[in-house]
Specification:
single chain; about 425 residues; Growth Hormone, Chain: A; 16 helices
Length: about 425
Protein backbone atom coordinates (compact mmCIF):
# COMPACT_ATOMS: atom_id res chain seq x y z
CA UNK A 1 0.00 0.00 0.00
CA UNK A 2 2.86 2.35 0.86
CA UNK A 3 4.55 1.56 -2.47
CA UNK A 4 1.32 2.36 -4.33
CA UNK A 5 1.04 5.68 -2.50
CA UNK A 6 4.65 6.51 -3.34
CA UNK A 7 4.02 5.76 -7.03
CA UNK A 8 0.91 7.91 -7.07
CA UNK A 9 2.80 10.80 -5.51
CA UNK A 10 5.80 10.55 -7.85
CA UNK A 11 4.39 10.34 -11.39
CA UNK A 12 7.01 9.12 -13.87
CA UNK A 13 9.47 8.92 -10.98
CA UNK A 14 9.42 12.68 -10.32
CA UNK A 15 8.35 13.76 -6.79
CA UNK A 16 4.98 15.46 -6.77
CA UNK A 17 6.42 18.77 -5.48
CA UNK A 18 8.23 19.30 -8.78
CA UNK A 19 5.03 18.55 -10.71
CA UNK A 20 3.26 21.22 -8.66
CA UNK A 21 6.00 23.74 -9.49
CA UNK A 22 5.63 22.85 -13.18
CA UNK A 23 1.87 23.29 -12.89
CA UNK A 24 2.40 26.75 -11.40
CA UNK A 25 4.60 27.62 -14.41
CA UNK A 26 1.84 26.46 -16.77
CA UNK A 27 -0.70 28.55 -14.87
CA UNK A 28 1.42 31.69 -15.16
CA UNK A 29 1.99 30.98 -18.87
CA UNK A 30 -1.78 31.10 -19.52
CA UNK A 31 -2.85 33.75 -17.00
CA UNK A 32 -3.28 37.51 -17.00
CA UNK A 33 0.41 38.29 -17.48
CA UNK A 34 0.63 36.16 -20.62
CA UNK A 35 -2.50 37.71 -22.14
CA UNK A 36 -1.54 41.32 -21.37
CA UNK A 37 2.17 41.18 -22.17
CA UNK A 38 2.46 38.48 -24.85
CA UNK A 39 -0.76 37.37 -26.54
CA UNK A 40 -2.48 40.73 -27.01
CA UNK A 41 0.58 42.26 -28.64
CA UNK A 42 0.26 39.75 -31.48
CA UNK A 43 -3.27 41.00 -32.22
CA UNK A 44 -2.48 44.74 -32.15
CA UNK A 45 -1.63 45.03 -35.90
CA UNK A 46 -4.76 43.04 -36.88
CA UNK A 47 -7.04 45.12 -34.69
CA UNK A 48 -5.48 48.36 -35.94
CA UNK A 49 -5.95 47.31 -39.56
CA UNK A 50 -9.49 46.02 -39.02
CA UNK A 51 -10.87 49.11 -37.28
CA UNK A 52 -8.54 51.92 -38.34
CA UNK A 53 -7.19 52.40 -34.82
CA UNK A 54 -3.66 53.67 -34.33
CA UNK A 55 -1.19 51.28 -32.71
CA UNK A 56 -1.06 53.61 -29.70
CA UNK A 57 -4.85 53.57 -29.29
CA UNK A 58 -4.92 49.79 -29.45
CA UNK A 59 -1.97 49.27 -27.11
CA UNK A 60 -3.50 51.70 -24.61
CA UNK A 61 -5.74 48.80 -23.58
CA UNK A 62 -2.83 47.44 -21.54
CA UNK A 63 -2.78 50.69 -19.54
CA UNK A 64 -6.45 50.17 -18.74
CA UNK A 65 -5.44 46.81 -17.29
CA UNK A 66 -2.43 48.04 -15.31
CA UNK A 67 -4.28 50.81 -13.47
CA UNK A 68 -6.84 48.55 -11.72
CA UNK A 69 -4.03 46.10 -10.88
CA UNK A 70 -2.67 48.68 -8.44
CA UNK A 71 -5.82 48.05 -6.37
CA UNK A 72 -6.77 44.54 -7.47
CA UNK A 73 -3.40 42.92 -6.65
CA UNK A 74 -3.54 43.67 -2.88
CA UNK A 75 -7.27 42.82 -2.78
CA UNK A 76 -6.72 39.44 -4.40
CA UNK A 77 -3.72 38.93 -2.14
CA UNK A 78 -5.96 39.32 0.90
CA UNK A 79 -8.42 36.91 -0.70
CA UNK A 80 -5.66 34.35 -1.25
CA UNK A 81 -4.78 34.54 2.45
CA UNK A 82 -8.42 34.26 3.54
CA UNK A 83 -9.88 31.59 1.24
CA UNK A 84 -6.76 30.01 -0.26
CA UNK A 85 -4.91 30.32 -3.54
CA UNK A 86 -6.78 27.42 -5.14
CA UNK A 87 -10.25 28.94 -4.71
CA UNK A 88 -9.01 32.26 -6.04
CA UNK A 89 -7.54 30.52 -9.09
CA UNK A 90 -10.84 28.75 -9.75
CA UNK A 91 -12.42 32.13 -10.49
CA UNK A 92 -9.60 33.99 -12.21
CA UNK A 93 -8.23 31.17 -14.35
CA UNK A 94 -11.67 30.84 -15.94
CA UNK A 95 -12.33 34.60 -16.19
CA UNK A 96 -9.13 35.36 -18.13
CA UNK A 97 -9.82 33.18 -21.22
CA UNK A 98 -13.52 34.08 -21.27
CA UNK A 99 -12.74 37.82 -21.35
CA UNK A 100 -10.04 37.17 -23.97
CA UNK A 101 -12.57 35.34 -26.17
CA UNK A 102 -15.02 38.23 -25.81
CA UNK A 103 -12.60 40.34 -27.88
CA UNK A 104 -13.67 38.31 -30.90
CA UNK A 105 -16.97 40.25 -30.78
CA UNK A 106 -15.29 43.66 -31.22
CA UNK A 107 -16.97 45.81 -33.86
CA UNK A 108 -14.76 48.88 -33.78
CA UNK A 109 -15.47 50.23 -30.30
CA UNK A 110 -12.34 51.26 -28.41
CA UNK A 111 -14.52 51.65 -25.33
CA UNK A 112 -15.40 47.94 -25.45
CA UNK A 113 -11.72 47.06 -25.79
CA UNK A 114 -10.71 49.22 -22.83
CA UNK A 115 -13.56 47.94 -20.63
CA UNK A 116 -12.60 44.36 -21.50
CA UNK A 117 -9.02 44.93 -20.35
CA UNK A 118 -10.20 46.73 -17.21
CA UNK A 119 -12.28 43.65 -16.36
CA UNK A 120 -9.41 41.36 -17.36
CA UNK A 121 -7.29 42.92 -14.62
CA UNK A 122 -10.10 43.17 -12.10
CA UNK A 123 -11.20 39.52 -12.41
CA UNK A 124 -7.95 37.98 -13.62
CA UNK A 125 -5.63 39.34 -10.91
CA UNK A 126 -5.98 36.01 -9.14
CA UNK A 127 -3.70 34.48 -11.79
CA UNK A 128 -0.82 36.81 -10.90
CA UNK A 129 2.31 35.30 -9.30
CA UNK A 130 0.93 35.86 -5.77
CA UNK A 131 -1.40 32.84 -6.02
CA UNK A 132 1.03 30.47 -7.69
CA UNK A 133 4.01 31.39 -5.52
CA UNK A 134 1.77 31.03 -2.45
CA UNK A 135 1.18 27.42 -3.50
CA UNK A 136 4.95 26.97 -3.87
CA UNK A 137 5.32 27.99 -0.20
CA UNK A 138 3.25 24.95 0.75
CA UNK A 139 5.63 22.59 -1.02
CA UNK A 140 9.10 24.07 -0.66
CA UNK A 141 11.39 25.26 2.14
CA UNK A 142 15.09 24.53 1.61
CA UNK A 143 14.52 24.48 -2.15
CA UNK A 144 12.02 27.31 -2.16
CA UNK A 145 14.11 29.52 -4.43
CA UNK A 146 14.22 26.86 -7.14
CA UNK A 147 10.50 26.21 -6.68
CA UNK A 148 9.84 29.92 -7.25
CA UNK A 149 12.22 29.91 -10.23
CA UNK A 150 10.41 27.02 -11.95
CA UNK A 151 7.00 28.59 -11.35
CA UNK A 152 7.94 32.09 -12.46
CA UNK A 153 9.69 30.83 -15.60
CA UNK A 154 6.18 30.26 -16.97
CA UNK A 155 5.91 33.92 -18.00
CA UNK A 156 9.20 33.67 -19.94
CA UNK A 157 8.05 30.41 -21.50
CA UNK A 158 4.89 32.15 -22.70
CA UNK A 159 7.00 34.89 -24.29
CA UNK A 160 8.90 32.25 -26.27
CA UNK A 161 6.12 29.86 -27.24
CA UNK A 162 2.91 31.87 -27.59
CA UNK A 163 3.89 34.49 -30.23
CA UNK A 164 4.61 31.98 -33.03
CA UNK A 165 1.51 29.93 -32.12
CA UNK A 166 -0.67 33.03 -32.12
CA UNK A 167 0.78 34.35 -35.37
CA UNK A 168 0.25 30.96 -37.00
CA UNK A 169 -3.40 30.88 -35.94
CA UNK A 170 -3.99 34.45 -37.16
CA UNK A 171 -2.44 33.61 -40.54
CA UNK A 172 -4.47 30.42 -40.89
CA UNK A 173 -7.88 31.46 -39.54
CA UNK A 174 -7.99 35.25 -39.10
CA UNK A 175 -7.75 37.23 -35.87
CA UNK A 176 -11.29 36.58 -34.57
CA UNK A 177 -11.04 32.81 -34.78
CA UNK A 178 -7.48 32.92 -33.45
CA UNK A 179 -8.64 34.77 -30.32
CA UNK A 180 -11.32 32.15 -29.69
CA UNK A 181 -8.90 29.25 -30.25
CA UNK A 182 -6.29 30.74 -27.90
CA UNK A 183 -9.04 31.38 -25.34
CA UNK A 184 -10.30 27.79 -25.56
CA UNK A 185 -6.72 26.50 -25.17
CA UNK A 186 -6.22 28.64 -22.07
CA UNK A 187 -9.60 27.66 -20.64
CA UNK A 188 -9.12 23.91 -21.02
CA UNK A 189 -5.50 23.98 -19.82
CA UNK A 190 -6.42 26.24 -16.91
CA UNK A 191 -9.29 24.07 -15.71
CA UNK A 192 -7.20 20.89 -15.94
CA UNK A 193 -4.26 22.50 -14.15
CA UNK A 194 -6.28 24.08 -11.34
CA UNK A 195 -8.41 20.99 -10.75
CA UNK A 196 -5.39 18.67 -10.49
CA UNK A 197 -1.89 19.93 -9.69
CA UNK A 198 -2.90 23.22 -8.04
CA UNK A 199 -5.41 21.52 -5.76
CA UNK A 200 -3.28 18.86 -4.08
CA UNK A 201 -1.40 19.39 -0.82
CA UNK A 202 1.58 17.59 0.74
CA UNK A 203 0.78 14.37 2.57
CA UNK A 204 3.42 15.24 5.13
CA UNK A 205 6.93 16.65 5.70
CA UNK A 206 8.39 13.86 3.58
CA UNK A 207 6.97 15.44 0.43
CA UNK A 208 8.33 18.96 1.08
CA UNK A 209 11.17 19.93 -1.28
CA UNK A 210 10.66 16.71 -3.24
CA UNK A 211 11.37 14.65 -0.13
CA UNK A 212 15.16 14.76 -0.28
CA UNK A 213 15.94 17.46 2.31
CA UNK A 214 14.66 18.29 5.78
CA UNK A 215 12.24 21.24 5.92
CA UNK A 216 12.09 23.65 8.84
CA UNK A 217 9.15 22.75 11.13
CA UNK A 218 7.13 25.94 10.58
CA UNK A 219 8.42 26.99 7.18
CA UNK A 220 5.45 25.70 5.19
CA UNK A 221 2.80 26.04 7.92
CA UNK A 222 0.19 28.42 6.43
CA UNK A 223 -0.50 29.90 9.89
CA UNK A 224 3.13 30.82 10.61
CA UNK A 225 4.72 34.20 10.05
CA UNK A 226 3.64 37.81 10.48
CA UNK A 227 0.13 39.11 9.77
CA UNK A 228 -0.11 41.92 7.25
CA UNK A 229 -1.24 44.58 9.75
CA UNK A 230 1.95 43.96 11.77
CA UNK A 231 4.12 43.73 8.66
CA UNK A 232 2.95 47.19 7.58
CA UNK A 233 4.68 48.56 10.68
CA UNK A 234 8.00 46.96 9.72
CA UNK A 235 10.32 49.29 7.77
CA UNK A 236 11.78 46.48 5.65
CA UNK A 237 8.39 45.83 4.03
CA UNK A 238 8.11 49.43 2.88
CA UNK A 239 11.70 49.37 1.67
CA UNK A 240 10.90 46.36 -0.51
CA UNK A 241 7.72 48.00 -1.81
CA UNK A 242 9.46 51.30 -2.58
CA UNK A 243 12.38 49.55 -4.29
CA UNK A 244 10.02 47.90 -6.76
CA UNK A 245 8.61 51.21 -8.03
CA UNK A 246 11.82 52.18 -9.91
CA UNK A 247 12.25 48.55 -10.96
CA UNK A 248 8.82 48.74 -12.62
CA UNK A 249 9.79 51.98 -14.36
CA UNK A 250 13.03 50.59 -15.80
CA UNK A 251 11.94 47.01 -16.52
CA UNK A 252 8.72 47.69 -18.36
CA UNK A 253 10.08 50.87 -19.91
CA UNK A 254 12.76 48.77 -21.59
CA UNK A 255 10.55 45.79 -22.48
CA UNK A 256 7.89 47.88 -24.21
CA UNK A 257 10.35 50.09 -26.10
CA UNK A 258 13.06 47.54 -26.92
CA UNK A 259 11.84 46.87 -30.49
CA UNK A 260 11.96 50.61 -31.22
CA UNK A 261 15.38 50.96 -29.58
CA UNK A 262 16.79 48.13 -31.69
CA UNK A 263 15.36 49.50 -34.94
CA UNK A 264 16.75 52.93 -34.03
CA UNK A 265 20.18 51.29 -33.61
CA UNK A 266 19.98 49.94 -37.17
CA UNK A 267 18.66 46.44 -36.55
CA UNK A 268 16.44 44.88 -39.21
CA UNK A 269 13.01 43.59 -38.22
CA UNK A 270 14.41 40.05 -38.19
CA UNK A 271 17.45 41.10 -36.17
CA UNK A 272 15.26 42.86 -33.62
CA UNK A 273 13.05 39.77 -33.36
CA UNK A 274 16.11 37.58 -32.71
CA UNK A 275 17.31 39.93 -29.99
CA UNK A 276 13.89 39.85 -28.32
CA UNK A 277 13.97 36.04 -28.47
CA UNK A 278 17.32 36.21 -26.67
CA UNK A 279 15.65 38.30 -24.00
CA UNK A 280 12.82 35.78 -23.59
CA UNK A 281 15.22 32.84 -23.30
CA UNK A 282 17.34 34.76 -20.79
CA UNK A 283 14.27 35.43 -18.63
CA UNK A 284 13.76 31.68 -18.22
CA UNK A 285 17.42 30.95 -17.52
CA UNK A 286 17.60 33.85 -15.07
CA UNK A 287 14.63 32.69 -13.03
CA UNK A 288 15.85 29.11 -12.77
CA UNK A 289 19.44 30.14 -12.02
CA UNK A 290 18.43 32.75 -9.46
CA UNK A 291 16.16 30.25 -7.73
CA UNK A 292 19.01 27.78 -7.34
CA UNK A 293 21.40 30.49 -6.16
CA UNK A 294 18.96 31.75 -3.52
CA UNK A 295 18.82 28.24 -2.05
CA UNK A 296 22.57 27.69 -2.01
CA UNK A 297 24.33 31.04 -1.55
CA UNK A 298 23.80 33.80 1.00
CA UNK A 299 20.89 35.90 -0.18
CA UNK A 300 22.75 39.19 0.13
CA UNK A 301 25.37 38.12 -2.43
CA UNK A 302 22.73 36.85 -4.88
CA UNK A 303 20.68 40.05 -4.64
CA UNK A 304 23.77 42.21 -5.17
CA UNK A 305 24.68 40.28 -8.33
CA UNK A 306 21.11 40.23 -9.66
CA UNK A 307 20.73 44.01 -9.60
CA UNK A 308 24.30 44.91 -10.55
CA UNK A 309 23.91 43.00 -13.85
CA UNK A 310 21.03 45.05 -15.36
CA UNK A 311 22.50 48.29 -14.03
CA UNK A 312 25.64 47.55 -16.01
CA UNK A 313 23.51 46.36 -18.94
CA UNK A 314 21.62 49.65 -19.20
CA UNK A 315 24.91 51.57 -19.22
CA UNK A 316 26.27 49.33 -21.97
CA UNK A 317 23.05 49.67 -24.01
CA UNK A 318 23.17 53.47 -23.71
CA UNK A 319 26.51 53.50 -25.51
CA UNK A 320 26.30 50.31 -27.58
CA UNK A 321 27.21 50.77 -31.23
CA UNK A 322 27.66 47.14 -32.33
CA UNK A 323 25.44 44.08 -32.49
CA UNK A 324 27.69 42.25 -30.03
CA UNK A 325 27.57 45.01 -27.42
CA UNK A 326 23.81 45.32 -27.80
CA UNK A 327 23.45 41.55 -27.32
CA UNK A 328 25.58 41.66 -24.16
CA UNK A 329 23.52 44.57 -22.83
CA UNK A 330 20.19 42.83 -23.53
CA UNK A 331 21.45 39.65 -21.83
CA UNK A 332 22.53 41.53 -18.68
CA UNK A 333 19.27 43.51 -18.48
CA UNK A 334 17.12 40.45 -19.13
CA UNK A 335 18.89 38.53 -16.39
CA UNK A 336 17.93 41.16 -13.83
CA UNK A 337 14.39 41.56 -15.13
CA UNK A 338 13.96 37.79 -15.08
CA UNK A 339 15.23 37.48 -11.51
CA UNK A 340 13.49 40.42 -9.81
CA UNK A 341 10.27 38.49 -9.11
CA UNK A 342 12.20 35.51 -7.71
CA UNK A 343 13.83 37.93 -5.30
CA UNK A 344 10.50 39.58 -4.41
CA UNK A 345 8.85 36.26 -3.56
CA UNK A 346 11.89 34.95 -1.68
CA UNK A 347 12.42 38.06 0.46
CA UNK A 348 8.75 38.35 1.41
CA UNK A 349 8.34 34.67 2.24
CA UNK A 350 11.53 34.49 4.32
CA UNK A 351 11.02 37.80 6.13
CA UNK A 352 7.28 37.58 6.85
CA UNK A 353 6.28 33.93 6.40
CA UNK A 354 3.21 32.41 4.71
CA UNK A 355 0.30 33.68 6.81
CA UNK A 356 -0.18 37.02 5.00
CA UNK A 357 2.05 36.34 2.02
CA UNK A 358 -0.70 37.00 -0.53
CA UNK A 359 -1.57 40.45 0.80
CA UNK A 360 2.06 41.49 1.23
CA UNK A 361 3.03 40.24 -2.23
CA UNK A 362 0.00 42.01 -3.70
CA UNK A 363 1.08 45.28 -2.09
CA UNK A 364 4.60 45.09 -3.54
CA UNK A 365 3.21 44.03 -6.92
CA UNK A 366 0.94 47.10 -6.85
CA UNK A 367 3.93 49.37 -6.19
CA UNK A 368 5.75 47.71 -9.10
CA UNK A 369 2.76 48.50 -11.34
CA UNK A 370 2.94 52.16 -10.39
CA UNK A 371 6.35 52.12 -12.03
CA UNK A 372 5.03 50.07 -14.95
CA UNK A 373 2.46 52.78 -15.68
CA UNK A 374 5.24 55.39 -15.93
CA UNK A 375 8.25 53.64 -17.51
CA UNK A 376 7.16 52.98 -21.12
CA UNK A 377 5.66 56.45 -21.57
CA UNK A 378 8.69 58.15 -20.00
CA UNK A 379 11.22 56.38 -22.22
CA UNK A 380 9.21 57.03 -25.39
CA UNK A 381 8.73 60.68 -24.40
CA UNK A 382 12.46 61.15 -23.84
CA UNK A 383 13.11 59.92 -27.36
CA UNK A 384 10.47 62.28 -28.77
CA UNK A 385 12.04 65.24 -26.96
CA UNK A 386 15.76 64.49 -27.37
CA UNK A 387 15.88 62.13 -30.35
CA UNK A 388 17.82 59.60 -28.24
CA UNK A 389 17.17 56.92 -25.63
CA UNK A 390 20.66 57.14 -24.11
CA UNK A 391 20.05 59.56 -21.22
CA UNK A 392 16.93 57.71 -20.12
CA UNK A 393 18.75 54.36 -20.30
CA UNK A 394 21.51 55.78 -18.10
CA UNK A 395 18.83 56.86 -15.62
CA UNK A 396 17.40 53.32 -15.68
CA UNK A 397 20.87 52.04 -14.76
CA UNK A 398 20.81 54.31 -11.72
CA UNK A 399 17.29 53.18 -10.77
CA UNK A 400 18.35 49.51 -10.77
CA UNK A 401 21.47 50.34 -8.77
CA UNK A 402 19.53 52.24 -6.09
CA UNK A 403 16.85 49.56 -5.85
CA UNK A 404 19.55 46.91 -5.60
CA UNK A 405 21.29 48.70 -2.72
CA UNK A 406 17.98 48.93 -0.84
CA UNK A 407 17.18 45.23 -1.37
CA UNK A 408 20.71 44.17 -0.40
CA UNK A 409 20.15 46.00 2.89
CA UNK A 410 16.87 44.15 3.45
CA UNK A 411 18.36 40.77 2.55
CA UNK A 412 21.12 41.18 5.15
CA UNK A 413 18.47 40.95 7.87
CA UNK A 414 16.83 37.71 6.70
CA UNK A 415 16.61 34.77 9.13
CA UNK A 416 19.73 32.61 8.96
CA UNK A 417 17.91 29.54 7.59
CA UNK A 418 17.17 31.58 4.48
CA UNK A 419 20.81 31.29 3.51
CA UNK A 420 21.03 27.54 3.80
Amino acid sequence: MTDMLQARRAPLGLPIAWWVATGAAIGLAIGFSAVASTVFGQFVPSLSNAFGWTRAETALAVTFANIPLIFAAPAFGLLIDRVGAWRTLCVSQIAVPLILMSLATLQGSLTQLYISFFLLALLGAGTLPAAYTRIILTWFDKRRGLGFGIALSGVGLAALVLPPITQGLIAAFGWRTAIVLIGVLFLVAGILNVSTLMRIKPNGPGEIDGGSVTASPDATDPASGMYWHRALRVPSYWLIALAYVPLGVASMGLLVNLPSILVDRGFSTGGASSMISLLGATLIVARLTTGWLLDNIRTVFVVAMIFAAPSLGFMVLAGADTTTMTGVAVFLIAFGIGAEFDVMAFLLSRRFGPVSYGALYGGVYASYNIGVAVGPVYLAHQFDVTGSYDAALALFALLFAVAGIVLVGVSRKLPEHAHA
